[in-house]
TrEMBL record:
UniProt family annotation: Belongs to the urea transporter family.
Keyword set, alphabetical order: Cell membrane, Membrane, Transmembrane, Transmembrane helix, Transport
Any Gene Ontology CC annotation: plasma membrane
Species per Swiss-Prot/TrEMBL record: Betta splendens
Reaction(s) this enzyme catalyzes, per UniProt: urea(in) = urea(out)
Membrane topology, from the record: Multi-pass membrane protein
Protein name according to UniProt: Urea transporter
Ranges that cross the membrane: 83-102, 134-156, 273-294, 301-322, 328-350
The gene coding this protein: si:dkey-183c6.7
Amino acid sequence: MWMETESKAEGVRRGRASVALRALNGLRLCTGDMEVMDTYMQDRFYVVQLVMWGLRGVSRVILANNPLSGALIMAALCWESCWKALLGALGLLASTLTAVVMGQDSGEVSGGFHGFNGMLVSLLMGQLSSAGDWYWWLLLPACMGSASSVFLYSALSSVFKRWDLPVSVFPFNTVIMLYLLCTGPDNPYFPHHTAMPPGAPEPNGTKLIAIEVIRGIPLGVGQIYTCGALGPSLLILAAVLLYSPLLTVHALLGSAVGTLAGLSVAVNHHFLYSGLSGFNGSLGCMAVGGLFFTFSWRIHLLSIASAFLSAYADIALGNLLGTVGLPASSWASTLLSTLMLLLTGSLATYRIPTGQVMAPEHNLCSHSQWEAGNPAATDIQL
């Protein structure tokens, strides 16, 4: 009798362990780059594939490559504003379909590389518009600007590939600046707000509120998608966590570094509280901290340096462009990340070829496996 009870208990434990193992394996399939999804989608309807390409493009904005992360981010945009979600989806669709019509590389289209610039263009047009939400005329420049980003991406990629550099968001930054310069703040059809320089003095000289500064750190990640509310920003962080925990740590670290940089030069409190002071630092930290470089303690320090440089460059560009009412967008992090990828010396050995970039954990595992099979590897290459 005792033996039967023991065997039943053992069977229950094994059953629970089996369920936990299946759940863990299922979770692993949903994290990282979800390569198995590409194989699964090959024979599906074109519309279904288009949705998958679009969701990968949504996540590409935050340097991820996961359709489930993209779905969470779209949910965050709907939470923030349905009008903003509509603009983002429209820009994403316009740029992706333009890439298909132009006959761009199918791998780039399915990977969302042509979608994320278009999405950012339409999102920032809506964010900067002074005509308010549901201003339907804005759909016209949003579609045209998003489509134009594909032409710029295609042209720049032929130049950047000579140095194995990603095009990144150069098309977005270029298109949005041209749009703002063409229309002007008082345009009768497409008016927009003028940008305030980060160094603008406080109008009322209020004291700094510490809890608002801390709240601005996760908001710095949300501001990458022009989200200024805490709930949607936390959902975007959850989307990054689904893709890569290491990338999430660097996203928050970079935003904190950007906030600290803003504090050190006494930027306007609005930039600290809203997360605008931290989002360029967040992007700069993520790009270096395990995405385009194999993670190590040296690369971790380099990612912090990249965050500081991106944040200070953003403040400098913001003060310069703010004199003519233009935002600095993400020029700082884009330029600094590109310069970091051109580094020479021992740190260059950590560089991952652009075509082989995947989730940081996958990059780290692949490097460890390579090193295990290479007895000549030294600690400097770790």
